């Protein structure tokens, strides 16, 4: 099944079903976490080897070239893997080969600049984090570890150190490969969840259409026949026409009662049921949730409005907020939803759902406030 093109962003990942723009990619929580880990590794690299690039004895132009090369290496390591996510395998292979070529350029300098263990470890992590097929990634990591050991031995490194450094390259590469596979599995689960939700919506629409047809089809057919008969009898037999019109009224009222009964059979919206739904939805999206255990303080007349507000607020957090944490506060006269996501602006505040909720609130004499949360993201507050 092809992934839906309008799938929302969930958890770590950009919207499913299309290649995200660079701006969408940078805004994703997965990218930010990659930057955190990769940035820490690059800081260690610079702190450990930066003195070799600042050492005297080399021409100024050569030291400048070495620094430009190093900064390009760091930038490629930081940006390369996120740019390859959701791209074709050909793109990933070409990007990995380009980074490998960039890393081998350091061998043109003197031996003390970025040893093979440093270089091949970064290349192994780079390749493993792209999500290429396991066989390709495994061969690449094993090849890097093997060639690293051969180069170290050829440079006079004793066999014990050469083997331990090769093991370091292999273990870090394989660990990143396993982590990348785990993220790919999570992405697939998220996509499956969205597809199942879309399927459930389509099935529900089909069921409603079928129920409406079953309920109204017969009644409307009889009404049409009796209306036609009443029209023909109106001049020739007014009393019979009046009887047919009375039957029409009874049929119409009966059909209306059937529709009301059908609609009334669906689950109503209220704060009690929506709290349970919110807890399940936030957990499925991987968002840490702080929810009240009960809603007894909410007056009975306000529970439907509070339920709509909670449903819309949680939907907003999951679809647009890019949040990792959501907190719901509830009182007799207020409902407040805070998250640590992207904050006000964009799709989070411009959707029809919030407009409809504002109209519901105004009708009930309540106010809807939207703004920045103390958690750093978006805040929705309904106040009676």
What does this structure look like?
The chain has 384 residues and is of the alpha+beta class. It folds into 3 domains: 172 residues, no CATH class; 58 residues, Single alpha-helices involved in coiled-coils or other helix-helix interfaces (Up-down Bundle), CATH 1.20.5; 113 residues, Heat Shock Protein 90, CATH 3.30.565. Helices cover 68% and strands 7% of the residues. It has 12 helices and 5 strands. A 5-stranded mixed β-sheet has the order 1-2-3-5-4. A hairpin with a 5-residue loop joins strand 4 and strand 5. The N terminus is likely disordered.
Describe the secondary-structure layout.
Layout: H1 22-27, H2 29-54, H3 60-84, H4 89-104, H5 116-128, H6 134-154, H7 159-236, H8 238-264, H9 271-284, E1 288-290, H10 303-320, E2 325-330, E3 334-339, H11 347-350, H12 352-363, E4 367-372, E5 378-383
Helix pairs in contact: 2-3, 3-4, 4-5, 5-6, 5-7, 6-7, 7-8, 9-10, 10-12
């Amino acid at each position: 099944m092809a992934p839906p093109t309008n799938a929302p962003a969930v958890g770590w990942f950009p919207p499913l079903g299309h290649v995200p723009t660079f701006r969408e990619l940078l805004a994703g929580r997965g990218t930010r976490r990659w930057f955190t880990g990769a940035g820490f590794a690059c800081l260690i690299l610079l702190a450990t080897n930066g003195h070799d690039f600042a050492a005297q004895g080399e021409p100024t132009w050569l030291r400048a070239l070495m620094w430009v090369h190093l900064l390009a290496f760091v930038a490629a390591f930081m940006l390369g893997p996120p740019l390859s996510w959701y791209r074709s395998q050909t793109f990933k292979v070409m990007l990995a080969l380009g980074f490998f070529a960039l890393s081998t350029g350091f061998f043109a300098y003197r031996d003390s600049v970025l040893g093979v263990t440093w270089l091949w470890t970064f290349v192994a992590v780079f390749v493993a984090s792209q999500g290429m097929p396991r066989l390709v990634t495994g061969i690449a990591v094993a090849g890097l570890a093997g060639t690293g050991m051969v180069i170290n031995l050829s440079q006079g490194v004793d066999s014990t150190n050469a083997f331990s450094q090769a093991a370091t390259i292999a273990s870090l590469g394989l660990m990143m490969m396993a982590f990348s596979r785990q993220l790919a599995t999570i992405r697939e689960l998220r996509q499956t969840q969205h597809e199942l939700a879309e399927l459930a919506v389509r099935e529900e629409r089909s069921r409603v259409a079928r129920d409406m047809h079953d309920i109204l089809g017969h009644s409307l057919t009889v009404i049409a026949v009796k209306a036609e008969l009443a029209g023909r009898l109106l001049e020739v037999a007014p009393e019979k026409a009046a009887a047919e019109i009375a039957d029409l009224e009874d049929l119409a009222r009966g059909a209306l009662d059937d529709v009301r009964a059908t609609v009334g059979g669906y689950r109503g919206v209220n704060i009690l049921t929506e709290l349970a739904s919110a807890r399940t939805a936030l957990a499925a999206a991987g968002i840490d949730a702080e929810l009240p255990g009960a809603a007894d303080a909410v007056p009975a007349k306000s529970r439907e409005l509070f339920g709509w507000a909670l449903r819309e607020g949680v939907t907003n957090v999951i679809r647009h907020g890019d949040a990792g944490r959501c907190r719901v506060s509830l009182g007799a006269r207020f409902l407040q939803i805070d998250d640590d996501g992207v904050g006000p602006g964009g799709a989070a505040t411009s959707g029809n759902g919030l407009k409809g909720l504002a109209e519901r609130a105004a009708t009930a004499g309540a106010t809807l406030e939207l703004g920045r949360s103390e958690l750093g993201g978006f805040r929705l507050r309904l106040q009676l």
